[in-house]
Amino acid sequence: MTTLSAKDVRPPRQRPPGALRRSVSRNLTAYGFLSGALICFAFFSWIPMVREFILSFQKTNFVNSTEWVGLDNFRTVLDDPAFISAWVNTAIFTLLALVFGYIVPFVFAVVLNELRHAQGYLRLIVYLPVMLPPAVAVLLFKWFYDPGAGLFNQALGVVGIPPLSWLDSTTTALPSLVIVSTWMNLGTGTLIYLAALQSIPSELYEAAELDGAGLFKRVWHITIPQTRLILLVMLLLQIVATMQVFIEPFLLTGGGPENATVTVAYLMYQYAFSFGNFGGGGALGLMLMLVLIVFSAFYLRVSRDRT
Amino acid sequence: MSQSTVQRPVRAVPDSPPPPKHTRRRRKTKERPQQFRGLVSPHTLTTRRGKIVYWTVLTFVITGFTLAFVFPLYWMVTGAMKSPDELVAVPPSFFPEELNFSVYAEAWELLDLGVFLKNTLIYAAGAWFFTLTFDVAAAYALSKLRPVFGKVVLALVLSTLMIPPMVILLPAYLSVVELPIFGWNLLNTPWAIWLPAAANGFFIFLLKRFFDSIPRELLEAAQIDGASPMRILWSVVLPVSRPILGVVSILAVVNVWKDFVWPLLVLPDSEKMSISVGISSLSAQMPQNVLIAALVIASIPAILVFLVFQRSIMAGLTAGSLKG
After folding, report:
1. pLDDT of B274-299, one tens digit each?
2. DSSP character for A15?
3. What's the ipTM?
4. Which CATH superfamily is domain B101-323 in?
5. CB B130 within 8 A of CB B200
């Protein structure tokens, strides 16, 4: 097919005099405007993204010059008994955080949406913990978890339940971290669901009611399907956010007791800043990146469809 | 880089600029529609049984929420005022024995909170400035000036949204220790907070989407009058973009204020620490009541900001998701 139709052969466009110069100057201006942001992205996002790969195949310790070590860093990390614990803990943490942090805000939102009074107050206070700096919330809960005089054991005592050892026992330590994390983050989900709920047309509920659908049937057949996109977006966001969990183990337990609360991000930090092994940390970071990128990409896809 | 928790949330924010003149009025009349109904029909609520159930649920919810979200804060504020002996008493006292505000002064002195607060303020203000300057300029260039390879640049910027900050923590830290090409060491300087904060793909996305919806005619009119791109940005685009600028400003400041891991790494010098890092680094050596007092002081700015900007914060969080 080498013949060209008349349509394909465009006459050379007549540029008005000075058009080229103007286009060059427009592009220069545009890149001038872009320069600040591009420099920041280059140094703190793009170069680090590439360097993450390089780092995990190198030995870096600021003293000697860096050298390529092949898969050594991965071998070191894989042989570490904490490695398996870190992934298992991160998985359990994410799962528990979803059970609480994902379902509870939805239930809160559904209930709040029915109330005709005090809604302003309730929305305000549910979001209050989100505004606190996470370090403050976590240190506050550290005090509540105190096995002796902490608020939680005192409260259990009132109900007649024997005190728990919270952060000091391998069984309760990880769930304790989940509680703090949920407490300080659930306001976001609640308010977002609440907004989504208010856009459900009333007619749907009216029709369902006329058809004799009970309260739970209405939730199941109308509320959930009508909000499924936002539910999916929030699910992905939450998985990505909770799998990066760091501050809770860092401030509350230091990974203990017996590695019961070591998470991948925390182990990565330890490798780099406690063991001085940036390569090992880089290898862990790379693995975490590969896992999270799947969820992130899916999230971006879904949320683009939505807008 | 500066966001580590659920700070990338959901397409926030109004989608299009309001018609220039009615900005204020339109935002205030955002009430729920009159005939709103949820799961339960208004009719059911007027029956006797419906009323009883409704008021029971309401009381239960108000009590529960207050206990869950306000009581911990009350416990914190009063806990600070209790003496170390009173703190460990079983059962605990509901009110402190005496209203002893001196512990707050003590915490301020012992932990050098003035320095930490000042540092955090500087970091937040600078991050706000650089974020707004760089990201607004970039979004404007991508949306309105449309240079060659603009699409590629946008794709690269949006690709950073896929990389959670935690996973490039170490290589980003290495960038700070020795800035590529220049070789400068930014550790313990405010630049280590300011510049990474401006590299925020989400803000550029929000701003660009908003700028995209500003009608062309508005800009062309200015162009015909001979206004330069800078002038158009300043006197045409920015004035109609106030809502989105507000949202980005608040998010930018709150991000820096809440961030922990990043300042922990790049500001190790105790003179330079942000308030979160400063308090947690000293937390082990402080008497319990002094530490709690410090926590109270650290929460006050955040809560004040929230109470003042409540409307924009919540609107920023949820407005976009209304379009579900």
Report:
1. 999 999 998 888 888 899 999 999 99
2. P
3. 0.85
4. MetI-like (1.10.3720.10)
5. no
